[in-house]
Amino acid sequence: MRLYVCLGILLTGGMSSIASAGDDRCGEDVLSLAEGQGRNAWAASCGYLQPSAVPSLDANHLYVVFTMGCGHAGCSPYVPVVATDPCVSGLTTFEYCTHNDAVLLTLSSDESGITVSSAGRVERCPDGGTCSFSYFLGSPLTLTLTSTRNLVDCLQFTGWQGACAGQGSTCSLVANSDLSTTATWSRIIGCIPR
Questions:
Q1: Are residues 51 and 71 in the same domain?
Q2: Which residues, in sequence order, are bridge partners of residue 65?
Q3: How far apart are CA 79 and CA 88, in angstroms?
Q4: Are β-strands 140-145 and 170-174 bridged in parallel, bridged antiparallel, or unpaired?
Q5: Burial (CB count within 10 angstroms: exposed 0-12, middle 13-18, buried 19+), residue 149
Q6: What does the DSSP 8-state code read for residue 78?
Q7: What is the pTM of this model?
Q8: Cys staple from 38: which of 15, 81, 134, 155, with CB 3.0 to 4.6 Å?
Q9: 28 sits in which H/E element
């Protein structure tokens, strides 16, 4: 069992008091360094943080989370991670989380979408795209191709390059560092493209 630590900070002229807090919100709203910095800038521009607090949070690898929502697809409400995104009303600041333990998974596939599952969270990367998702260090990840054959173009999945190399169309990983993988495809012999 891995214990995640989130930090609550009392911002009174700086970071003078740090207290431990529950891990639920931090575990649901895992952000990379760039996403965390974007969230802090967004929160300051929307009035959820004092602008003077942002440099201290960024320097200490911390980002603000709210009592609801998160910064990845499928969250309701979606809480932005880009400073210039529109403000979301009705949020309540909850605590500050560290992204020191966040790792980045980058994946791509030209012919099939990829679904990534981890601890009840599901992310989808469409075919023909490259996607990046952040997870806590040590998270188990399951990557699954949406399909392994494309009969329109006469292509079939032949394997993975990178972190999933040597595994089949379903790949199991542990997020122990930043990871990258690409699904590879080859022509189906004798197939006539539709």
A1: yes
A2: 95
A3: 7
A4: antiparallel
A5: middle
A6: B
A7: 0.60
A8: 81
A9: helix 24-28
